[in-house]
Fold each of these.
Amino acid sequence: MLHIRPLILAGVAGTTPHHTENPHQEAVMRIFALAALVCGCSLSVSKAFILPLSGTRGVHCRRTSAVKVVPLELEGQLDPTKSWEVKMTYLGETKVLTVCEDTPILEAALKEWDVPCSCRNGICTTCAGRIIAMPGSKKEAIHGLSAEQSKNGFVLTCQTHPIGPGLEVELGMYDTVYESQYGQYEKKATTEQKSKFNVFG
């Protein structure tokens, strides 16, 4: 059975976890991160390092003041002079936060809660959330979820930016997203494994 372990992509030498100065380097880092997700190994990348975590699916990010960097996929599509009120809910607590267009939902949420997150590159899905209202009031840099999950309102909050009024987001949806992505395969593998050892049929 394949176990996919979450990662921490930590920036060093003054860089942020989700951005590099070179778009090609950023693309390579994402490929390495994806490879690490599959094999669960530890990789070292220029100006960044990736560490696997065992025994848990998600981790809690430290509350740090990240440098605002517009994702390459959204360059020219966000107005940093505009801010929107976003209604966020985490563990039953609801707050209305003012979020600039060039700030991901995750970064705004981390100022209020210890929201689980990991790679911040739209790969690990640890920061998954669900849009409750006004899906047209957000833009996503990377669509790292399946079409069915996106249709059901799930997003990766590290890649989601507000662009209009009335946006409502439920945070901490990783377990639900994980189950819909891999749960069926894990159950199938478990059933097949049990059948191999069931000598009585």
Amino acid sequence: MAVAFVKAQLLNYPTHVYQRFQPKIGALGSSLSCEVSKNRRHFIVMSATTVGFPHTPVHASDKSGIPIMVNGCTGKMGKAVLDAAISAGLNPVPVALGGPEDSGKIVDLGDKYVEVHGSDDREFILSSAIKEYPDLIVVDYTVPAAVNDNAALYCKLGVPFVMGTTGGDRDLLYKTVDESTNYALISPQMGKQVVAFLATMETMSQQFPGAFSGYNLQVMESHQASKLDISGTAKAVISCFHKLGVSFNLNQVQLVRDSKEQVEKVGVPEEHLFGHAFHTYRLISPDGTVSFEFQHNVCGRSIYAEGTVDAILFLAKKIKSKADKRIYDMIDVLREGNMR
């Protein structure tokens, strides 16, 4: 209700890049303070207070499509998933979970809004959403530190989920799901084509162990500057090369995070400096006369968002059919062969 007022007020504001305002709604005892970009589809309410409404109720105003809750939706990946999900006809519910710093933020999706709740009331919010949307599927793009606690909550409340967040204790994650009756799809890599490449590498390493014995390996990966560690994808590919007979330590990976070097040497388009994944794996024979190169370059986040939508559709199908298997990954989605 207060949010609807905010949107109406925006339409009357002068066209500046950013506007700051704080509408008051006496009847609801509510106030909102926002910073809004007129050049972006999404805006985020930086703080929100509602007197007399400790929890925002979930309203089933739109029951079309599979209902999804995208936790971590204030992040770039979460927003990309929301866009892809809406385009695919899925139905984001009006609440989501986030970290303490996200509590009270509101994401504008054009014709609906998602209010983000912090850790204090997350169980109440999620259980309320499950009651309102019995077919709810949760999508998790939060932070590594939240992976295990979030999975435990999903399993406790019996809500199926797609875990796209990397990190956390992966063994504990699988154990938590396995000991529950939950359906889950867990994959640190949601890009379907990248997953297909990883599957191909794994197959080759299993069928032809030692095929590249003696070869020298060079690995370069370029990501946005905010990503400081080696990607899970690079680690998986390197693991396959180990099985193929190549000696290589992770500290030998060349991490490119400088924007000037990314543009001039790696070839990253400037508009994708804040969201890309360029990987090159080069094998060189002992005498230097033969070389093999494997490369995959991704600009933006659409490949991961579209893969996440396929994961949601796949998991919904398995739930509906009451499949015996309950834990899946993106390889299962690829093998199903009915992606959009």
Amino acid sequence: MPSYMKLLTLAATVAVGVVTAAPSVDHAKCAGAQLVSSTTLHVGGHDVLLTTHSCSPSAVERRQTTPTTFVNVCGSTCTTSCNSVTGILPPISDDCQTIENAIVILQSTMSSTFLVQPNHLKTLTFGTCSYFFENIGPTELQSCWADLSSFGHAAGAACFPPVQPFFPEGLCTAYDGTWAVGATHS
């Protein structure tokens, strides 16, 4: 029943063109997610949901000060891991491919980069798949749409079928632990 309600809410939202609700967030690193913004992007004949969530910072992160400038992490590297935080089923690969196609269109029509505040999560969702960038650190980060696509794809390739055992979420976490990119079941 909860999945039916999510689907009904999302369908109604897309039908009217104004997003009033977004899928809940249950990623490995984003505790206590709260929706900050939500927009439906019409790309390539598909409606892809772009959301930003705030995450509850740890006590240590709350005490750190935030600089006034951002750090560009485009082209950085990360380590891939898998988990079952978001359930038991992986997303449908065609849904993830739609997100990758949407990113190609997005970066040609918008800026090739995006900013994410500390303890925030930016997500693109289509059908059963979500690609996300999560800023776990204390500094605003700038990332590239191309990195979101390639790291999300790599995380999915490491964790989704035909890989056995498969997982519903793949993460690519920065070596310094300040950010993660992932692909997950929405």
Amino acid sequence: MVPSGDFAFGFQLVGIEGLLLAIWFNKIPEKTVVWSANRDNLMRSRSRVQLTSDGDFMLSHPKGEQIWKAYLKGSRVAYAAMLDTGNFVLVGHNSTYLWQSFSHPTDTILPTQILDLNTNLSARFSQMNYSSGRFMFAMQADGNLVVYTTDFPVQTNIYAYCATNTVASRFQVIYNESGDIYLMGNNRRKLNDVLSNKAPVGELYQRAIIDYDGVFRQYVYPKSAGSGAPMAWSPLSTFLPKNICTRITASTGSGACVFNSYCILGDDKRPVGSTQ
């Protein structure tokens, strides 16, 4: 757990006996997961995560089979730390970060997090199924920010339904402490907004996620009940795309809804499949 207690790192129970090595918001009842190591391979009891005497950080089955490992750049880990930002870091003997969860996201980004070139967010399969799903938010190596459908269960891109059409080197997606999420060019200037919401970090917990329905949304949760706002995750008004039902027009895949259904937006602006 971090000094503030806002985030925790460890095993979270999924279903009856599945264990997910994860980072989550620790001060809210939902214990919302923001990162995980073994989303496609849940563990069972007596599994363990360890920092070995050789300086490796890994997740193993009870019989010793390695399931996940943080791949380092040749240096040995001195210690691990959970930061107040929600970033879990492995630190070398010279105090440099050898590995950090912010550089290896799953489906979520947090304030102060940066998506560098060739970094993806992969949607979960459903609300409570954390395994890799049908959509990908990709900061491509060519500088183009693209949201794709995937060839589920294989994480291969099929159809791009949102793109910034920016091609240049050293572009990044920035999520700053003011709640802005934007694309920054190689001249260190804002190129364009990804989401144009404003939400101060000091009063609200925040996260942005490529949801299981293929929409990139930003959510906030009050840090205290005195604000008068609902004590729950609330989506902000700007999301990407505005209407996913009309944006996914590919002839392959199931689109935003299930196979053989019409896709319409419900009152909450989420896609709903209809067979009528």
